[in-house]
Design a protein that fits this description.
This protein is α/β, with parallel strands linked by helices. The protein folds into 2 domains: 192 residues, 3-Layer(aba) Sandwich (Rossmann fold), CATH 3.40.50; 103 residues, Helicase, Ruva Protein, domain 3 (Orthogonal Bundle), CATH 1.10.8.80. 45% of the residues lie in helices and 16% in strands. It contains 15 helices and 11 strands. Strands 2-5-8-1-9 form a 5-stranded parallel β-sheet. It has a two-stranded antiparallel ribbon with strand order 3-4. A two-stranded antiparallel ribbon has the order 6-7. The longest helix has 17 residues.
Length: 307
């Protein structure tokens, strides 16, 4: 699957792996980067590789919650209301520029991201499996945007950037799109049924208690850090454990090791902490704080890990 996406997205293997880790563990991804670096293409390539139903929601200031979840329309022939599903009811959903819409519409995603369902007209409708959301936001433009609240950020498993390609990678991009875009020829390499089976295997990856304690210590470290006003929640501990299970599965192991947790912690924790005023004045960043926490929390070694 990763190699298939790499036919379209050049030189971003780590970001592609993180996306599939989130997909396998049932999580969602927030991409924060400047326009034109391949955020949309990454999501489309993932959807095509799975043969999944893909929908795109272009978030704008006038977007309504019903434009996301769906709406009931009165059918004059049957004299009944019929529900027309919104774009959220797909396997892979691109929530493009999510911070450009109002908090009311942003909130329409909360239930879908956490519970895999939407409630409209008093009726709860389950979303089809698998369900995967990749949201994007532009970190440069702040005019006319609504920053995502902490409750919304906490629903995303990972937050990361794609970044600019190197000169050689950009040359490869030009060569590939010279006579047509490779996304048009991309084909599915697995079925949705196969993916669901993999997701079930990920849940059964063994996580030792020492590794669980390491996860708890990392999350607790964000709460006790002197520069943090609000630390990561227990949802962060669950997310980090599930992500580590998916990462171990991708490494062809049936158990999680502490290094799995350490590798994924920056992407799972940095968007879940709020800095205090002193840290903001001293130009501290979430990335630096999470790195500081990881460096100071001891890793289980020796007999503890061997168990």
């Amino acid at each position: 699957m990763i190699e298939n996406v790499e036919k379209v997205v050049v030189g971003k293997r780590k970001e592609i792996e993180l996306s599939f880790i989130a997909l396998l563990s049932g999580g969602h991804v927030l991409l924060e980067d400047v326009p034109g670096v391949g955020k949309t293409m990454l999501v489309r390539a993932i959807a095509k590789s799975l043969g999944a139903e893909f929908k795109r929601i272009q978030f704008t200031p006038d977007l309504l919650p019903s434009d996301v979840t769906g709406v009931s329309v009165f059918n004059q022939k049957t004299m009944e209301f019929q529900f027309r599903p919104g774009p959220i009811m797909a396997n892979v959903v691109l929530a493009d520029e999510i911070n450009r819409t109002s908090p009311k519409t942003q909130a329409a995603l909360l239930e879908a991201l956490e519970e895999g369902s939407v409630t409209t007209d008093g009726e709860t409708r389950e979303l089809q499996e698998p369900f995967f959301v990749m949201a994007t936001q532009n970190p440069i433009e702040y005019g006319g945007t609504y920053p995502l609240p902490e409750a919304q950020l906490d629903r995303f498993l990972f937050k990361f950037k794609i970044g600019y390609p190197s000169k050689q990678e950009e040359l490869e991009v030009l060569n590939r799109v010279e006579k047509g875009h490779p996304i048009a020829e991309l084909e599915a390499v697995i079925s949705l049924k196969d993916l669901i089976q993999m997701q079930k295997k990920v849940v059964n990856i063994y996580v030792d208690e020492t590794v669980k304690r390491y996860i708890i210590n990392l999350v607790n470290g964000t709460r006790q850090h002197h520069a943090v006003y609000l630390g990561a929640s227990p949802r962060a501990s669950i997310a980090l454990m599930k992500a580590a299970q998916a990462y171990a599965f991708m490494q062809d192991r049936d158990f999680v090791v502490p290094d799995d947790v350490k590798t994924l912690a920056p992407y799972a924790l940095q968007h879940r902490v709020l800095l205090n005023s002193d840290a903001k004045l001293s130009e501290m960043t979430n990335e630096r704080i999470i790195k500081d926490v990881i460096d100071h929390v001891p890793i289980p070694v020796g007999n503890e890990t061997a168990k």
